[in-house]
Write a structure and sequence with these properties.
Helices cover 80% and strands 0% of the residues. The chain is elongated, with a radius of gyration of 25 Å.
Length: 153
Amino acid sequence: MNIGSNILKYGIKAAGVIGAGMCVYDAHKEGLRKSQIEVRKGNADAADRWFENTRGMNNTSNINAKLKDKIFNWELHNNLRGYINAGIGYVKGFVGMLASDIVPVGLSAAAILTKGKTAPKYAGGALGLYALYGFTKNVLGFGVKEATQDRYV
């Protein structure tokens, strides 16, 4: 094995690791974003539900009214729901992003895991072509009519 093919082999493996790392990084960031959305949405829904509960009375009991207000105030400051919704939102965002990036994830895995003389070259070449396609479409905007998602700041 000569030094040129060794460099190519390790270059393809490095490209696969970089590609997989980029996909996992994007999935992590999307998980964090979805996590915050789920927390805010869950807290708003619960606050609305508990506020509505405080406004309705089956009977005119002052004790019941005070208890309902206490429960409402406790619900506003309860953090348990936020932790649960944050976990659910993170998983939704992470898995959703990995699913939408299934092609680069698969090509990166193929570049890392394939053995032999030709298979890693095909996987690396396909990963390079997909990276070029993604750059021209998603970064340069060729072939895109308008933005379909909110811009990250």
